[in-house]
Design brief:
73% of the residues lie in helices and 0% in strands. The chain is mainly α. It has two domains: 56 residues, Orthogonal Bundle (Arc Repressor Mutant, subunit A), CATH 1.10.10; 146 residues, Tetracycline Repressor, domain 2 (Orthogonal Bundle), CATH 1.10.357.
C-alpha cells in the first residue's frame, strides 16, 4: 500500500526544514534524478501542495537545501576561526580539520554534496548560490590566513592562498567520496597544512 503523507499542524519553519531534510535524505539515497517531488514529500510526510506553497517548486527547494548545506560549512568554519584563546595558526588548522570529519564529511552528506556539485553547471540558481556562499567561505579563510601571515612576519596573497586551499580541500573531499580508503581525514588534513607550509612558516615543519 502506498504511503500516505501525515498532515500535522506545524509551523511554516518546521515544515520548510522538514522538506529540506527530506530532500537531503532522498538525494543521499536516490541521487538527484531519484529525488522526485513525490519522494521528497513522502519522505517529509507532507503533501506536494505544501512543497509548492513553501518553496514554489522543486528547483527552489533544491537551492534552499544547498544553501543550508553550505551555510553549515560556513558556520562551522566561522565558529572555529573566531575562537578565543587560540593562535590564528591553530584556528585555521581546526577550521580545515572540521570540514574533513563527520558531521560535515559524513558519507551521506558527501553524496549529497557531490550531487549538488553536478548541478552547479546546469542550474543557474544553484550556481549563483554556490558562487556567493563559497565566496563568503573563501573570504573567511583568507582572513585567518592573513592573520597567520602577520604573526609569521611574512607577506602572502591571502586571497590566492585561500583559493588554492579550498580547491585542494574540494579535491580531497572528492577523493574521500570516490575512494574512501585512499585518504584518511588525518592524511587529508596534513596535505592541506603542507600546502600552507609553502608560504607560512607556522606550518613549515608539518
Amino acid at each position: 500500500m502506498a504511503h500516505k503523507p501525515k498532515f500535522t499542524r506545524e509551523t511554516p519553519d518546521i515544515r520548510r526544514q522538514a522538506l529540506i531534510n527530506a530532500t537531503r535524505r532522498c538525494m543521499a539515497r536516490d541521487g538527484v534524478e531519484g529525488a522526485s517531488v513525490r519522494r521528497i514529500c513522502d519522505e517529509a510526510g507532507v503533501s506536494q501542495g505544501l512543497l509548492r506553497h513553501h518553496f514554489g517548486g522543486k528547483d527552489n527547494l533544491m537551492a534552499e537545501t544547498y544553501r543550508a548545506m553550505v551555510s553549515e560549512l560556513g558556520s562551522a568554519t566561522r565558529n572555529l576561526i573566531g575562537r578565543d584563546g587560540l593562535g590564528p595558526e591553530e584556528r585555521l588548522s581546526q577550521a580545515i580539520d572540521v570540514t574533513l570529519r563527520p558531521p560535515l564529511a559524513a558519507p551521506d552528506r558527501r553524496r549529497v554534496q557531490l550531487a549538488f556539485w553536478d548541478l552547479v553547471p546546469r542550474n543557474p540558481a544553484i550556481a549563483a548560490m554556490h558562487k556567493k556562499l563559497y565566496g563568503d567561505y573563501r573570504k573567511d579563510i583568507a582572513g585567518v590566513i592573513a592573520e597567520v601571515a602577520r604573526a609569521d612576519g611574512v607577506a602572502v596573497d591571502a586571497k590566492a592562498l585561500a583559493r588554492a586551499l579550498t580547491a585542494l580541500l574540494d579535491g580531497l573531499w572528492l577523493q574521500m567520496c570516490l575512494e574512501p580508503k585512499l585518504f584518511s581525514a588525518r592524511a587529508a588534513h596534513r596535505e592541506c597544512l603542507s600546502l600552507l607550509g609553502r608560504s607560512l612558516p607556522s606550518y613549515a615543519d608539518i
